[in-house]
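check this:
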Amino acid sequence: MFFTVNMMAKRLRIHSVLKLICVGMLTILSAKGQTDPVILKVAAVQFRSSYDISDNLKRITAVLDRLAADNVRVAVFPECALTGYTLAPSMPTPETALAAAEKDLQRTCSERKIAAVVGTVYKANGHAWDAADVINSRGELVERYGKMHLAGEGWAVPGNHIAYFDLEGIPSTVIICHDERYPEMVRLAALAGARIVYYVSAESSLKEESKLAPYRAQMMARAVENSVYVVAANDPANYDLTGSHGQSRIIGKDGNILQEASIFGEDILISTLKLSSSEPNWTSEVLVGPMGAWWRSGLDWMMQKRHEPLQ
């Protein structure tokens, strides 16, 4: 049979797409060893931090204890939940205290058999990152993600990779606050097979009311355009209108909000997500479309960099 160069190239592209889809499906299949939907009980914790890391750690641990008793498998906490969020030029929390708190969280997750996505700060080699620690239910740190798109955090340097990891048997990603304005952050992870987006934030305060509707719309769009669930944990507002504006939420893969928290309360949203390996990953169609080469180059970059440490 005669094949032109274009036909062969197209077949190679299709093979690449099928390989990516199979990787994501096999990961979900391996979680249960069967084709039944995978059930994952998740919680978005609207957590009011202080600048006292010991107090924050104590309260985060108490929440994890409570959620583990309720059979929640993944708990998500806001941006800088462990340290408190600030736009000050420096983040004074010592590197040693951050490392010790991280170990304590790993121990709690292991003992309570619960996974956690926790906003924190990571320090190394004289630098600081606005980070998210992803810890599985065995207490293993499966991802340390540094916020790539900063929003005035003068104490931080940008991260160096897009997060893509397995958490409790589900291919997933995490983004931090301002990252939500960059759709490719989620699309590339979804192309690789991610089915859940964990979003940790300390969004603007109620004084910037015009931002509230766009905040909601952006993450609803990330969900529906990639057919992924979103578990979003944001800081609550304070009664003096400092802090953020609450409204943590869990969003279905069709873009509709399943649950949304209040503005001022330290609410905890709990939802049971159903993920099936038989659902098509239609986002992969872009890999063979007119912009296929562009998306594939981004996907290659993400996969090459995803285990790169912050340093």
